[in-house]
Design brief:
Layout (H helix, E strand, L loop, with lengths): L1 H28 L7 E7 L2 E2 L3 E4 L4 E3 L1 H13 L1 E7 L5 H5 L6 E5 L11 E3 L4 E10 L11 E5 L3 H10 L4 E5 L2 H10 L4 E5 H7 L8 E3 L5 E10 L2 H15 L3 H13 L7 H46 L9 H14 L5 E8 L2 H8 L1 H18 L5 E6 L2 E7 L2 H17 L13 E7 L2 H5 L3 H17 L5 E3 L2 H23 L2 E10 L5 E12 L3 E3 L1 H11 L2 H21 L6 E5 L10 H11 L7 E6 H6 L1 H13 L3 E7 L6 H6 L4 E5 H6 L3 H17 L3 E5 L4 H9 L4 E3 L7 E2 H6 L2 H13 L1
Parallel strand pairs: 1-5, 1-6, 9-10, 9-11, 17-18, 20-22, 22-23, 23-24, 24-25, 25-26, 26-27
Antiparallel strand pairs: 2-3, 3-4, 6-13, 7-13, 8-11, 8-12, 8-13, 14-16, 14-17, 15-16, 19-20, 19-27, 19-28, 20-21
Helix pairs in contact: 2-7, 11-12, 12-13, 19-21
The protein binds ligand C2E and magnesium ion (2 copies).
Length: 745
């Protein structure tokens, strides 16, 4: 039993010895004995092709990684590469998670001061200087050089070699290049293999490596100088020494011969920017051109549609729609031309169609429109509303033109069938509407057509007439206006227009204080026409200035003649509101006149009607001011006839107010009118302005005015306007005599 126990003890001892032996053998034989030990290797991944993260495999690869992997494989390790999180190798050295770190040139102290131990050299890495635009660098010792912050260790080595070199560290390559381009550093320094990668970036094409490599550095793995550290390094060194040169060179060649740089968006833009821009411009141009073509085609189609809608396909006249538009357009472009609109209709057109067929009817309509168009201009229009209803918009050229149209168009249409050896005479009924000023301000074509149609219906009822007017007065007026305008130049030259004088008297003293020059026209065709009619017509036609220049000159001639006879007279002349335009220099005109006729400025009073001041105040006020400066007396004519504003009296530079007694007393309660006049007289007197009343027709009015403080008067009561010869005979004696008789009666 005891022997058996001893046997068991011996067996246990032998077993335990075996286990101990096995363990110690395992530990002696290194990591390979129990499967490969995995080492965590920390490397920077910002330096392709030495260390970088391969996107497709999601692992860290590169020359350095592959070399170490080969050496570690020889030493029986498996490596797990991790990207360096720390800013520098020194900081990373303190991180216990890492078994090995790379790259080391030589052993350094960690950030916390721990010593490190490094492996044998894996390869010699060349370091190259890069400059901007191939700049030549003479003295390396005096250079300002930029480097990666993570190459702090290398920086220290370089500093040792070139003590006067100024080294600045930057976080990444972009910062390095910025510093180089801005001149903060003269050159950049980095591993030559890394440069071969970085310089593939298109935007760095201005950077070039200096041919001379300034130095090469060892490329080692390292770790903290601990027992374990030393153990790992010892194994690694064995692996490194087993690494054949051919393998190392193969790895380097593999990475440096491949094009590893991958273009990002900005690289493409930089490299192919011009081409991309050209492409984009081409694309935009194509889009714009297509858009324009599309719009042009659309416009063309719209235009065609509009033309179809606006035109009558049978006759070529406008449709009612087109006619409406055209008339509005014509009126807008020709606001000063007189127009009429006629509504025309063929009598018994239905009978014609029945007798000769629809085609013959159509031919007749086309012929009618064609003939009409032959006599019409671009600023006139013809439209077919329906069937045989044709509207014409035409210049109102008077009865002469109507006759001409009858000849050129209506008679031709009348004989349409006769000239084709058929016995039917065509009769056209026309209603004419003459446009009024309101039609120019607010053109309503449908209304005009309606009015013309009303006239046409009347004509139809009356079998004798072929045309009639909706508004014959307007036509008459238009005809008279045309006669006035047409004849003005002849009238001025031929003596048809004369200047008459209406004396102005002082009712208190019986003296003649002056006269107003008023023009008279004995028209060859229309007889005596009053300025009340022809002045507005000439104003509208823009011709009143021609007339006034004639009147003013005639007055000056008379004044000069009277001066020569020793009679110093004063005459008031009328100035139309249309004479005083911004561009017409009326004050200068009068100044030249009195110089020519050797008059004194006090002999001319300039009458400007009250309404002119309210309409165009600024330049009329300016003209008044200048006239007064030249010594003329300025009068506000027809005061009380328009919208007199009390403010006006304060602001407008005039010498005399011409109160229109007729306007002030004509309508409403005469008593109230008189009260208003009496207050006005007081006000004007109080304002220190001179005053004259015009339109005085009887002694009661004259007395009333005098009693209220206005003695200067003009009116039929004293004398009507007289031709110059009669006015010359009209003396103070005659007026005094007349007044004495009047007072006595
Ligand atoms: P006006 O300047 O207010 O001229 C006074 C008008 O009143 C004159 O009319 C005159 O004949 C008329 N008249 C004078 N006394 C009486 C009266 O007691 N009772 C009535 N009922 N009327 C009286 P006329 O000559 O027909 O002139 C009318 C207007 O035509 C003038 O009004 C003036 O504004 C304008 N006019 C006349 N001649 C010229 C001229 O040569 N150039 C310009 N631009 N306008 C003129
Ligand atoms: Mg007047
Ligand atoms: Mg007047």
């Amino acid at each position: 039993m005891k022997a058996k126990r001893n046997f068991n003890l011996i067996r246990a001892l032998i077993l335990s010895l075996f286990v101990v032996l096995c363990f110690s053998f395992m530990s002696f034989a290194g990591p390979e004995a129990g499967g490969k030990e995995i080492l965590t290797v920390c490397v920077p991944v910002d330096r392709c092709p030495v260390f970088y993260l391969d996107d497709s495999k999601e692992e860290i690869i590169g020359i350095g990684a592959d070399l170490l992997r080969e050496a570690a494989d020889n030493a029986g390790y498996e490596l797990n590469f991790v990207a360096m999180k720390e800013e520098t190798l020194k900081d990373a050295l303190d991180n216990e998670e890492y078994d090995i770190l790379m790259p080391f040139g030589s052993a350094i102290k960690s950030a916390s001061g721990q010593s490190s131990i490094v492996s044998d050299n894996l390869m010699q890495t060349p370091f190259t200087i890069v400059t901007e635009n191939n700049r030549n660098l003479s003295d390396l010792n005096k250079l300002k050089v930029g480097m990666f912050r993570s190459l702090g260790g290398v920086a220290e080595t370089v500093k040792g070699m070139y003590p006067d070199m100024e080294i600045s560290l930057y976080d990444d390559m972009d910062d390095c290049v910025k510093a180089l381009r801005s001149g903060d550093v003269d050159a950049l320094l980095h591993n030559s293999y890394v440069w071969s990668f970085i310089l593939q970036k298109p935007s760095y094409e201005d950077l070039s490596p200096q041919t001379s490599t300034i130095f090469s550095m060892d490329f080692r793995a390292g770790t903290r100088d601990t027992d374990r550290g030393r153990d790992i390094i010892e194994h690694l060194n064995r692996g490194i020494s087993d690494l054949p040169d051919t393998v190392s060179q193969g790895i380097v060649l593999d990475y440096t011969s491949r094009n590893l740089y991958k273009y990002n968006f900005f690289d493409y833009i930089h490299k192919y920017g011009a081409v991309i821009l050209l492409g984009v411009l081409l694309f935009i141009a194509i889009i714009i051109i297509s858009q324009q073509r599309y719009t042009a085609v659309k416009l063309q189609q719209e235009q065609k549609m509009r033309e179809l809608l606006d035109h009558d396909s049978l006759t070529g006249a406008l449709s009612i729609n087109g006619f409406r538009k055209k008339v509005v357009e014509i009126l807008r472009d020709n606001p000063d031309t007189k127009y009429f609109l006629s509504y025309n209709n063929i009598r018994d057109f239905k009978y014609i169609n029945d007798r000769y067929g629809k085609e013959a009817g159509d031919e007749l309509l086309s012929f009618w429109v064609k003939k009409s168009m032959e006599v019409m201009g671009d600023d006139e229009a013809i439209g077919r509303i329906e069937g045989d209803h044709v509207v014409v918009f035409r210049h109102a050229g008077g009865n002469k033109q109507l006759k001409q149209d009858e000849n050129d168009v209506i008679n031709q249409v009348r004989d349409f069938f006769i000239s084709r050896n058929k016995d039917n005479k065509i009769r056209i009924c026309s209603g004419i509407y003459v446009l009024t000023p309101e039609d120019y301000r607010n053109p309503d074509v449908d209304h005009m057509v309606d009015y013309a149609r009303v006239a046409e219906k009347k004509v139809k009822e009356n079998l004798k007439e072929s045309y009639g007017f909706y508004n014959p007065d307007q036509w008459e007026r238009g005809m008279r206006s045309a006669d006035i305008i047409e004849n003005l130049p002849i009238a001025i030259g031929s003596g048809e227009i004369q200047v008459w004088y209406q004396p102005q008297v002082n009712f208190e003293t019986g003296s003649i204080t002056g006269a107003e020059a008023l023009c008279r026209w004995k028209h060859s065709k229309l007889g005596w026409i009053s300025p009340g009619e022809f002045i507005p017509v000439l104003e509208e036609a823009g011709l009143v200035y021609d007339l006034d220049c004639f009147v003013w000159e005639k007055v000056c001639q008379d004044l000069q003649r009277w001066n020569d006879q020793g009679i110093h007279r004063t005459v008031s002349v009328n100035v139309s509101r249309n004479d005083i335009k911004e561009q017409a220099d009326i004050p200068n005109h009068f100044k030249e006149l009195i110089t020519t006729y050797r008059l004194t400025p006090d002999q001319l009073h300039i009458e400007i009607t009250e309404t002119a001041y309210t309409e165009n105040s600024s330049y009329i006020i300016d003209a008044s001011r200048r006239l007064r400066e030249y010594g003329f007396e300025v009068e506000m004519d027809d005061f009380g006839s328009g919208y007199s504003s009390l403010r006006m009296l304060k602001e407008i530079p005039v010498d005399r107010i011409k109160l229109d007694f007729r306007f002030l007393t004509a309508n409403g309660d005469p008593e109230k009118g008189r009260i208003i006049v009496s207050y006005m007289i007081r006000m004007v007197n109080d304002l220190g302005l001179k005053l004259i009343s015009e339109g005085v027709e009887d002694i009661i009015q004259a007395r009333f005015l005098q009693e209220n403080g206005c003695s200067d008067m003009q009116g039929f009561y004293f004398c009507k306007p007289l031709p110059v010869e009669e006015f010359e005979k009209f003396s103070e004696e005659s007026i005094k005599e007349f007044l004495i008789k009047a007072v006595r009666s």
